[in-house]
Each structure stands twice: as C-alpha cells, then as structure tokens.
Amino acid sequence: MDSIIIEGGIPLEGKINISGAKNSCLALMTCAILTNSPLKLTNVPNLSDITTMSLLLKSLGLEVAHGEGDRKVTLRAKIITNSKADYNIVRKMRASFLVLGPLLAREGFAQVSLPGGCAIGARAVDLHLKALQKLGANLDLEKGYVIASAPTGLVGAEINFPIKSVGATENTIMAATLAKGKTTIRNAAREPEIEDLIECLNKMGAKITGQGTSILEIEGQQSLNGTCHEVISDRIEFGTYLLAGVITKGKIILVGVNDIHSKEFLDKVKEMGVNYTYTPEGLKVDCSDSQLKPISIITEPFPGFPTDLQAQMMATMSLVNGTSEIDERIFENRFMHVPELNRMGANIKLEGTRATINGVDKLIGAPVMATDLRASVALIIAGLAAQGKSVINRVYHLDRGYEEIENKLAKCGARIKRVVS
Ligand code: UD1
C-alpha cells in the first residue's frame, strides 16, 4: 500500500488549481441513467471514486468514455442491460447507492447492494428508502440488497425529510424527474452539489423549482434528454488547501474557487484571524505573519460549516494558541484523526460529539495511519506543519478525493513524496 512521506516545516507558497467537485460529479454521472441520450460532463476530477462510479455505470450497460487528459466524460445509457448494482462495487463507495433512484425511475426495477457502515459512522439509507416508497416503489431487503420495483412507474408525492440528507435528497430528486405528476420535497438538503444536480437535470428537460432552498417541486416528465454540463469546483478541496496554507503560515493563491459555496467556512477562517483577498488570479491567502485566534465550530448541513472540513480545521486549530472547540453534529464517529493528531503532539480531548483543542507550540512528525478520506488529508496538512518527518500510511483514501495532491503541494514548496509499494 502506498504511503506519503512529508518533511514538514516549510511555508507553502504558490498557486493551487481547484478541481471539479467529487461529490457533485458522482451524482451528475448517475443522471445519465435517466436518458438514452448522451450526457457530457466537463471539469471532471481525476479521482478513484470517479473511476469506481464509471465501473458501476458500465456494469449497468452504460457507455462511459473518459476524454484523455481533458477532464471530460461522456456517458450514454442507450439501454440498461443490468439493473443490479453489485456489492463488490457499492461497498467501496457509498455514493454508488445513488443509482437506485434513477434506475427505478427508468427501468421500474433495481437491485442495489446496501452500502453498509463506514469508518465515520453507521450512515443509514432509511431516508432514501422511505422517500422512494412514498413515490410508489415496492421495496424488499434480500441478502444485503434492496430490491425495488415500480412496474407501472413511480408517482409524484409529498416527501418530508425528518433530517437533511444530501444523498437521500439527490436520490429522490432523480427518481421524481420521471414520476407521474408532481413531487414536493420538504426539508431537502441545500448543498451546492444539489444545486448543481438540479441545474443539470433541468438542462436535461426536468422541471425542478426551488433550487437552493429546502422546498423543491418536481413536475415529472415522460422522458429526459442529454446535455453538456460543467461540474462546479470542489469547495472541500478548496477549504483543505486554504487550511494547508494557514497551518504552514504560507502565502497561496487558490485558483478556480467559487467562494459563494464556502461562506460559513470563510467567515470562520476570518474569525480565526486569517487574511484573504480576492485577486484576478484567485483567492489569495497570506498567513506569513498572522496571529491566529482560537474559534468554535459546529458542523451542520449547508449553509453551515461542512463536516467534510472538520478534520482539516482540527489539525489547523491544534497549532492555534488557546482553546478551540468543535461540535460534530453530522457523523457520530468522525474523530478517528484525533488519536493520530495527538500522536504528533496535538492536545485534543474528546467528549461525545465535542472536541476541545488546546493549541500547542509545535507538532512533531510521526508515522500515522489514515482512516478515511478527510482524516487522511488532515494528517497530511498536520505533517506539512510538523517538525521533521511524517509518514502517512494507507493513503488510498486520499486518491478517492484529492487529485494529484502531492504535485499540487510540491509545486508550492512542500517536501512531499509518495512511496509506491
Ligand atoms: C454526503 C457527502 C459526504 C458528506 C455528507 C454530509 C457525497 C457523495 N457525500 O454524504 O461527503 O460528508 O453528505 O455533508 O455527496 N442519514 C440517515 N439516513 C439516511 C441518510 C442519512 O440517518 O437515509 C444520516 C447520516 O447517517 C448522517 C446524516 O444523515 O448522520 C447526513 O448524511 P447525508 O447528508 O445523507 O450524507 P451522504 O449523502 O452519505
């Protein structure tokens, strides 16, 4: 298994291009199931999760053509040859469950493996299933698979989500685009990736209103057409590199950012004492002589502080003088990076969903183990600031969500290399 070796202590300096959003792209790819015409996506990030989704869609009969080096993918579902999403693919990536809604809407039948738990929590799919049942699907659970059928098609309905779920909102929207009549979704998640999905679906001929709000109305259509769509930029990758600049006291310019998607994050970063400015090239962060202050954050659904930036923020807080606090309200077990950061000299205490981070003067490089995607990158940014050598093991998690991370960081002066084994 590959590992990443970092000799820390170098302030980052330079430009970093932000790639297309992984989470947006994964949902957009599944839209191709809804039409027999081609769906062309641009600004597609080169990530292993995207490859996994391509494999899954190919297994269902889609043609998937990745343009070489041009960040484009064309998907076409002329016919669906197989309505079964196999455990061996779904277990690798929870977003695979997003094929359920579109498959059911197009074929009236789908068999999708349950994704199971993951390192950051139990992550149920009950909300996805209840919403599809409301749209008229018959559901059975058999040998770890959801068997869903709607032989005469799905029918529009009123759906009230008890809590906000990104995936359940996406699955329901896609299913409802081909249902008979009108669907109203209340307490829908409002993440930018959902807005991106709605924009693409409307270009495909869907009739969805309420984009960007928590009440969505969908007028089901008989069929959808293909389209071309550019994936939005990755707000989590942006936040991660911004914090890498902060923790190393660097000067970086982040290119290709959509700051509207990161307002709460940027407000918190400003409260911490980070100076950033907008330049024609991109968002410039200069932390070379910032005096950072401790802050408190609560992770919440959008527009709140994103749980996907919690681990990276915690690594950064560990070097901020004073006591910072994090309350993780989305995933019950998303603190696996804490013991690893403490092994590097951080002083973080956990109590239930709360972490108290007492700033230390320095982190010391150490061998550490990555446990999930965002925990892995938090260890990378801690390693960039730490004195001496850090070895981050099990980095395959990183390749799921960070395109060319070593190259992007090395171009800004980081002493970082991958050891392939
Ligand atoms: C998506 C993102 C992930 C991000 C998360 C929260 C993708 C591919 N992944 O994951 O990076 O961390 O949003 O912003 O877009 N829940 C239920 N029942 C359900 C569904 C969810 O109880 O049926 C719970 C989850 O356990 C969690 C909360 O709802 O506690 C939010 O999860 P959800 O928004 O669904 O996350 P994902 O869509 O899986």
Written overview of the protein:
The chain has helices spanning 22-31, 48-59, 87-90, 100-107, 126-134, 166-176, 192-203, 235-247, 263-271, 310-317, 337-343, 373-385, 396-401, 405-410; strands at 3-7, 13-17, 39-42, 63-66, 73-76, 84-85, 109-113, 138-142, 145-149, 158-160, 182-186, 207-209, 215-219, 227-230, 251-255, 275-278, 283-286, 296-299, 323-328, 347-351, 354-358, 367-369, 389-393, 415-419. A hairpin with a 4-residue loop joins strand 16 and strand 17. With 421 residues, the chain is an alpha/beta fold. The chain folds into 2 domains: 3-19 and 233-419, Enolpyruvate transferase domain (UDP-n-acetylglucosamine1-carboxyvinyl-transferase, Chain), CATH 3.65.10; 22-230, UDP-n-acetylglucosamine1-carboxyvinyl-transferase, Chain. The structure holds uridine-diphosphate-N-acetylglucosamine. Uridine-diphosphate-N-acetylglucosamine (UD1) binds at residues 23, 26, 94-95, 121, 123-128, 163, 165-168, 189, 193, 307-308, 330-331.
